[in-house]
Amino acid sequence: MNNTKKLKFLKIFITIFLLTIAITNNFLLSIKLRLKHRDSLDYKISKFAIIIRKCPHCGLFSFFITNLGCINKYFNKGYIPIINTKCFPNVLNGYKLHDNLWELFFEQPFGFTLDDVLKNADNIEYIRCDGTSDQPSDEIISDRIKINFWHNFAKKFMPIKTNIIELSNKLMKKLFNNSKNILGVLIRGTDYISKKPQSHPIQPTIDMVISDVRQLEIKNNYEYIFFTTEDEIIRRRFIKEFYNKIKQLHFFIINYNYSSTDYLNYNENIYGNILFNKQYLLNIIILSKCLDLVTSRCSGASGIFILTKGFRFVKIYDLGVYK
Length: 323
What we know:
CATH architecture of the largest domain: 3-Layer(aba) Sandwich
CATH class of the largest domain: Alpha Beta
Helix content: 40-55%
Structural class: alpha/beta
Shape: globular
Oligomer: single chain
Number of strands: 8
Number of domains: 2
Largest sheet: 5 strands, parallel
Number of helices: 10
Strand content: 5-15%
């Protein structure tokens, strides 16, 4: 075995070793906490951390990756974390304090709901957690070890509600008729284009995306292209180019597109906010199940990579950040 092959083998071994340690540590932690709950009358002795994030303009998958990081952080401190989205205005509840609408989409760790904890627990600490240094970010999309770690962590400690997973499966069958030869495409527009928010990833132009998708489509002859964007102008342009193969989920749920000059924001229509974010979550789930993927860097892309079991081919637009 020459030195190059030895080095390659060593890198693979180290990657598998580190990943195994990370997964094993969290598995053992979950077992430890479950045993602790069973033996300690749960609510009366267990320590609960009510996790709150005050970020009215952050999107659903910004909350998704931040909440994963906060759950991990406070697990390691011996707490049972509970996500609370009802205390501050956000993309789910608008300006009104409402039920903990996070629980419409995701399970809480170990099945404790916010209301149950508030009614029954004796040991509660309220913690504002706007992020942690080790939370998943849009940069994980190029790090297989971190992707695998957070994939397993999210599956165990913040799984998507069963009814939403079942709906995504039904929609995939309706859209693609059991075909697996699907290219997924995710592109952000609106506020990213008009506002160019500082330190956020620079988005590709629609011309760049169309050119790359065209080359991939010629090479792989996809049966379908599943396209997701919140930008009406980008959506129309993409449909015009690939109208014979493109599929979009919002035809079946709700039209949620905006023009590029709009700034995405929550509003007082809680029902509309719920539909919007349910739509968004379903899009990300379906993108995570496509054969190949073309995506810009954004929180939604991080969500795709955390949810997916893997892609055959990935094209990521890594163009730096807005200054």
